[in-house]
Design goal:
The complex is a heterodimer of chains A (147) and B (211).
Chain A (H helix, E strand, L loop, with lengths): L2 H24 L57 H4 L1 H7 L52
Chain B lengths: L12 H10 L7 H25 L3 H4 L3 H11 L15 H5 L4 H21 L5 H21 L3 H4 L14 H13 L18 H11 L2
Helix pairs in contact in B: 7-10
The chains are: A mainly alpha (147), B mainly alpha (211).
Chain lengths: 147, 211
């Protein structure tokens, strides 16, 4: 006991005093955190755009809008149209999806319908998924907005 | 009890069988009966389990033409049959519970399917199957809704989903689903099979039963 314990106690006390001094000094310097804001501040999380780019601009005014997501597994046939599960006017609000153009609720005689017109049933006849891919056949097409 | 006394001389077959079971063994040793019973028990449980698993394979499911030509054909090319990693969910993975109790209950319910196949032929043609599809699908939807999509969650768990790797629409929708307490089947109907006409309206009716 005695001498050895005494030495360690003195060493510990000195170390504590030094640490306390260091903390007291750093308190004056503003906090620099990696998130760039104090811990009590809300930092908005950036939107995640992975696999899902924002919508392309139309190449010409009458172009049917492109689909900014994959539609590989969606059923569009005689019995069901899964696109309407989000894009029909009755569902679009809840699902945060754009509503079909109101022209799609007109039948061939211009009667207003509550459900999508049979003539507009097959979405992918006009609307295709967008892809930033090289054209299959070289062409000189220019968007009308660029001319 | 109320039977005529003439029966008392010769008991009925159930009574005689019970008497046979209740009589102590006079021929076999206790060792043979206990150890032998144990070994036979292992054999019985093994074969029972083997039969249970044998009927729990895709191969067994599509041994009936109803399954092979309708639901199995539609399942081809869907995300659970064809995907980047090559991991597959086969028929029983989604349609038979993994826990023992619910699994046995489902297996017993499946005897009705045998009745439909062998006796009534309720879905024996593509036309009959098409007419029954909404009913059949609604049964699966109701089961999924009742169990919080238990069979989906054998593999898919919200806890381990990385929304930042998902497509942004999917990530947002899944976060909303957690916040709203939604279950998988609320959005993902018809992921492996074709949907019948009026599926969304029917599903909403079923979902309303649980509100």
């Amino acid at each position: 006991m005695s001498k050895h314990v005494l030495t360690s106690t003195i060493a510990a006390v000195t170390l504590l005093a030094l640490a306390g001094l260091a903390v007291a000094q750093s308190a004056g310097i503003p906090l620099q955190s990696l998130r760039g804001a104090g811990v009590d501040e809300q930092v908005a999380v950036q939107d995640n755009f992975r696999l899902d780019e924002k919508r392309f601009v139309r190449s010409y005014r009458q172009q049917p809008p492109l689909v900014p997501h994959s539609i590989d597994q969606y059923q569009i046939d005689l019995s069901a149209n899964q696109c309407l599960g989000c894009h029909d006017w009755a569902n679009a609000g809840n699902r945060g999806a754009p509503t079909l153009s109101m022209t799609h609720y007109l039948d061939r005689d211009n009667n207003q319908l509550d459900r999508v017109s049979g003539t507009r049933w097959f979405c992918n006849q006009c609307h295709v998924p967008q892809a930033d891919a090289p054209e299959l056949i070289g062409n000189t097409f220019q968007s009308s907005s660029e001319r | 009890m109320a039977e005529p006394s003439s029966n008392a001389t010769k008991p009925g077959p159930i009574r005689r069988f019970w008497n046979f079971l209740a009589r102590p063994s006079a021929v076999f040793s206790l060792g043979l009966l206990t150890i032998g019973g144990f070994i036979v028990g292992i054999g019985f449980w093994g074969s029972f389990h083997w039969a249970l698993e044998m009927t729990n394979t895709e191969k067994f499911c599509i041994s009936c033409h109803e399954m092979k030509e309708n639901v199995y054909a539609e399942y081809q090319g869907t995300a659970h049959q064809n995907n980047p990693s090559g991991v597959r969910a086969t028929c029983p993975d989604c349609h038979v519970p993994k826990e023992w109790g619910p699994k046995i209950i489902r297996k017993i319910q499946a005897s009705k399917e045998l009745y439909g196949h062998f006796i009534t032929g309720s879905i024996e043609t593509p036309e009959k199957f098409r007419d029954e599809r909404l009913y059949l699908a609604s049964r699966v939807w109701r089961a999924m809704k009742a169990t919080d999509s238990r069979e989906c969650r054998n593999c898919h768990s919200f806890d381990f989903m990385d929304f930042t790797i998902q497509a942004s629409r999917a990530g947002k929708a899944h976060q909303t689903a957690i916040d709203d307490g939604a279950t998988c089947i609320d959005c993902h109907q018809g992921i492996a099979h074709d949907l019948p006409e009026g599926y969304l309206e029917r599903y909403r009716e079923i979902a309303a039963e649980f509100d």
